[in-house]
Specification:
There is one protein chain. By secondary structure, the chain is α+β, with helices and mostly antiparallel strands. It has one domain. The chain is built from 2 helices and 4 strands. The chain has a 4-stranded antiparallel sheet. Strand 3 and strand 4 form a beta hairpin.
Length: 66
């Protein structure tokens, strides 16, 4: 199952990846093509953070260093 979630600031596709034998949630940024796969432990950890923890990542001045 694939779902696209979008608003005026972002567009992402969310799907479940079962190719490795263990299920993982795949999130793809439809503008840049960036992807991340999160396993159940990583997803559980997300339930422990607040929106305040995410603020630096949604700040338009935030720069990704590669």
């Amino acid at each position: 199952m694939r779902t696209v979630i979008r608003n005026e600031f972002a567009s992402v596709e969310v799907s479940v990846d079962e190719t490795s034998g263990a299920k993982a949630l795949r999130i793809t940024d439809l503008r840049s093509g960036s992807k991340i796969e999160l396993d159940s432990l990583e997803l559980e950890a997300l339930t422990r953070i607040t929106h305040r923890h995410l603020e630096p990542f949604v700040d338009p001045n935030w720069i990704v260093l590669e």
